[in-house]
C-alpha cells in the first residue's frame, strides 16, 4: 500500500490537558485510489494530512509511506521520504512570487537532485497535463486562482510521488473551477497511480472520488455523513 496509517493517535498540548486531534485512526490508500475526507471544521482533517505528510509525528500508531514505517524515523529520513514519495498541496497556493511557472516546478527537481534536462522535460509534460502549457513563463500574479492551484498541483507531482495529499484545494475557487480541479485530480490519480487523499468541504465533488471518509472529533469513519456541516 502506498499510504497506511494504523491506530494513529495525535494529541496537542491544550493548557493543562491534551487535545486528541486523531483518535485511533486507520487509513489505507493504494496506488490509483482517490480518497476524500470530509467533516466539520476542527474535526482533525488537516492534522490527518500533516501526520500522513510526515510533518507531525503521532503520539502512537504507525504511518507507512511507500512501504516504509516513518512513525519513529528521524528528521532526516522523514524529510527524504517526504521529498521522494509525497506530494503536498495546501489550501493556499504557496508559490514563490518572483519565479515563473516553469521555475516553480524546477526548484522541486533541483532540491531532489534530478538532472536539469530530465526536470525540464517532466515540468513541461506536467504543465501540459494541468492545461498550463502556454503559461510556463508567467509569474503567480499574472495567473488566476484556479491557474495558481494547478501550478501547485503540477509542482507537487514533480518528483513523481506515490502519495498526493491535498487540503481543501477548491476553497478559494467558484464551484465550476473547483469541480474542474477535482476532475483533474481524479485523472492524475489514475494516470500517475497516485494514492490521493483530498480533504474537501465541497460535497458536490464527491461523485468523482473512489472512497469517502468522514472525520468527526478525530475519529475517521467510512462513508459520507449526509448531514455533515460544511467545513471551512
Ligand atoms: P480541521 O482541518 O478538520 O479543521 P485540524 O486538524 O486543523 O481540523 O484541527 C483539529 C483540532 O486540533 C482542532 O481542535 C484544532 O484547534 C486543534 N489543533 C490543530 N492544530 C493545532 C496545533 N498546532 N496546536 C494545538 N492544537 C491544534
Ligand atoms: Mg483544516
UniProtKB/TrEMBL annotation:
**Molecular function terms, GO-annotated:** ATP binding; ATP hydrolysis activity; transmembrane transporter activity
**What residue ranges are annotated as transmembrane?**
none
Q: Which PROSITE patterns match?
A: ABC_TRANSPORTER_1, ABC_TRANSPORTER_2
Keyword tags: ATP-binding, Nucleotide-binding, Transport
All copies of domain ABC transporter, residue ranges: 3-228
What's an example GO cellular component term for this entry?
plasma membrane
Q: Does the keyword Heme apply?
A: no
PANTHER family documented for this protein: ABC TRANSPORTER RELATED, IMPORT ATP-BINDING PROTEIN
This chain's protein is named Putative ABC transport system ATP-binding protein
Query: What organism is listed for this UniProt entry?
Result: Nonomuraea muscovyensis
Lineage per the UniProt record: Bacteria, Bacillati, Actinomycetota, Actinomycetes, Streptosporangiales
